[in-house]
Amino acid sequence: MRDASSAASMTDLTGHFIMTIRRPFRRSIPLAAALALFATLAASPARADHCDDNAAQLASAIDGLKVNFKAGNIIYLTHPAATELSLGCAGNEYASELYAKTDRKIRPAFFDLVASAAAVIFTLPKDDAATGTSRCLKRMGLLHGDKVTIRYKRLDMQCTRTRLDASIVVRRGLDQ
After folding, report:
1. How far apart, in whole angstroms, are the C-alpha atoms of residue 68 and residue 89?
2. How would you class 74 by CB atoms within 10 Å of its CB: exposed for 0-12, middle for 13-18, buried for 19 or more?
3. How far is CA 4 from CA 8, 13, 57, in A?
4. 176: Cα separation from own chain's centroid
5. CA-to-CA distance for 38 and 77, rounded, in angstroms?
6. How far apart are CA 2 and CA 29, in angstroms?
7. Spatial contact of 121 and 94, defined as CB atoms under 8 Å apart
8. Which among 168, 50, 68, 160 is positioned nearest to 117, based on CA atoms?
9. pTM of the prediction?
10. Domain boundaries in the chain?
11. pLDDT score recorded for residue 44
12. pLDDT, tens digit, 9 for 90 and up, residues 101-158
């Protein structure tokens, strides 16, 4: 009696000839999986990063704002009302972050820029964003000092003032 694994062919009880294959279709299974993966990736549209989408929305919503370049998870922006402007995306402690810096004497155009950008990034009404950012920026002074931190409409705002400039950081935490 022959062993089933060593036999290339056998006959069953009725006398019919049965061909056994020693090597099942091993090469076709990975090929089929690769083709299925390729078809799935080719059919799905290319998705831009959420941060890039926010930067594009900012550029289209605010006059004079331009997207400079992306380095890591920060997109640098330019606007005539700000000396520095950047959009941070998905860090360890925050989901989104807006950083804006201007001269120590804050002009109304800067208030409008920060309120408009915060409204677009954090999907708030512009009035609410303007209220929160202006509270933070106007609170700096003799009574509260040169570093003010407030929380308004689930946003963390930190305003800092030095001898030459003033800056604001608006963040939304990961838990919100």
Report:
1. 15
2. middle
3. 8, 14, 68
4. 15
5. 37
6. 30
7. no
8. 168
9. 0.67
10. 9-43, 50-173
11. 43
12. 999 888 999 999 999 999 998 888 989 888 988 888 888 877 777 888 888 888 889 9
